[in-house]
Amino acid sequence: MNQLKGKTKVVLIQVRDQRHIAEHERNCFAERLGPDRVELHTLNVTEEPNISLGDVDPYSAVILGGAGAHTVTEDYDFTGPMTDLVLKLVDADRPIFGSCWGHQFIAKVLGGKVITDIAHEEVGTFNLWLSDDGKKDALFEGLPHSFFGHMGHHDYVVRLPEQAVELAYSQRCRNQVFRLRDKLVYGTQFHAEMDAARLIERLGFYRDSYVPDDDVFETLTSNPVPTPESDLLLGRFVDMIT
User: Fold this and answer.
1) CATH topology for 3-241?
2) Which of 77, 109, 115, 158 has the lowest tally of Cβ within 10 angstroms?
3) Mean pLDDT confidence for 206-224
């Protein structure tokens, strides 16, 4: 494994065109991965779109983050290079974790379907349930079969790739978590990198586009729901790759 001074080297690929939000996202992932265990680096494809396999070779795992101002349903300068990268990583059996946009992008690249549907959007904290496969998966071993996750999305995965297995779902939106069969490739529609305090901060950044109603914003931010189970998942992912 690629390690630096005893730490596992992980790269976060970001799709953030605002520096303060990119930094916030990086800090969220660093906290959940464990700064004492993981040396986290970032590559931002809104700044350098021509990403390649060589850029991520030094790292033990690749994380695909969120993208509040971008959608998987449209193409950008980075879409082609990112598609090629994900396909090569999967073929090489490299560990990948996709969060929100990253979850959707992995699913689409491998043959799934992602759509924009406001009727199924989830903004805030929602209950999730493990599928039968999820109950048996190592990432969720010993956790309750129902737990909460923080979310903020207008797009969602309506069909998984053939090689993917659904591990968790919510009432409004299925395919909340998937894993590729026999590979350390996971996607979570919810934000496993954010605890309740970090969700409040993120909602503030995207208030106009995700929570324009003042009353709804006040409700979400004044009554944060803790997510102790989903807070563990990125650390468990590190355990699995090391």
Assistant:
1) Rossmann fold (3.40.50)
2) 77
3) 75
